[in-house]
């Protein structure tokens, strides 16, 4: 069923005209990805911004809104669904077909020189940001971060709150290895690469590393958080109200101490690490542009692998993936 997006798009275009970018005012296009701030495969309702603005609720797709046009890129799994759900304001861009240009290529061709294209930097990964930035630069346009999500501003009080459910601990008989042993592996790899810190934003990697599980995203045993691993500290950025009642005992059983900091302070802490010394910080290219932009001297390509060993996870019944952070310094 099609839902009218006329009023939403009108409000968004008003905000686009007023968007402040440095000394400039106004952007020519706004990108709305499907991702949350952790580039998760699935999202909680709070993060379904692309669905809100377009009416298309498939799990994959990116909306692009200009001052005159609204377009949705999605792959072949969702062509028929998109045709049924997009109203007349939208153009379906069939991603994966040779005749369909990339988002960056389309914008570069259709926007005037000097145009600014905005996006919430927390919702676009470094890996996705760079090719769009390159294609826009070739047309003398610029991809710029917009602080404060424009869709959230329109959604207002009707936007569901970010999920914040209680975390539970995973006992050693199920995890198979303590946090301390995992930390030893990371320490050794950081030493080999002469790195000072590892920044982790992928929710499943954090849950695996800390032997914790959550339910902030339906059918996924994860919780909203960030993690910084150094030689001396484990810094967990999370709402303290969701920590399990046995969190202190959990740390003792895993032979570690975890310092808990506010979820929203991850950017401040990265900036602090960078400013205090010439630190070499590693982060995955799939992390948000917001986080990677805080780290100077980007040098993608090098990887740290964290071998998981024989973890048995009764909650997922599946192997945990390896952490693949990338050198950013």
UniProtKB/TrEMBL annotation:
<protein>
    <submittedName>
        <fullName>GM17144</fullName>
    </submittedName>
</protein>
<feature type="domain" description="Creatinase N-terminal">
    <location>
        <begin position="10"/>
        <end position="152"/>
    </location>
</feature>
<dbReference type="InterPro" id="IPR050422">
    <property type="entry name" value="X-Pro_aminopeptidase_P"/>
</dbReference>
<dbReference type="GO" id="GO:0070006">
    <property type="term" value="F:metalloaminopeptidase activity"/>
</dbReference>
<dbReference type="GO" id="GO:0005829">
    <property type="term" value="C:cytosol"/>
</dbReference>
<dbReference type="GO" id="GO:0006508">
    <property type="term" value="P:proteolysis"/>
</dbReference>
<keyword id="KW-0479">Metal-binding</keyword>
<comment type="similarity">
    <text>Belongs to the peptidase M24B family.</text>
</comment>
<dbReference type="Pfam" id="PF16189">
    <property type="entry name" value="Creatinase_N_2"/>
</dbReference>
<dbReference type="InterPro" id="IPR029149">
    <property type="entry name" value="Creatin/AminoP/Spt16_N"/>
</dbReference>
<dbReference type="Pfam" id="PF01321">
    <property type="entry name" value="Creatinase_N"/>
</dbReference>
<dbReference type="GO" id="GO:0046872">
    <property type="term" value="F:metal ion binding"/>
</dbReference>
<dbReference type="InterPro" id="IPR000587">
    <property type="entry name" value="Creatinase_N"/>
</dbReference>
<keyword id="KW-0378">Hydrolase</keyword>
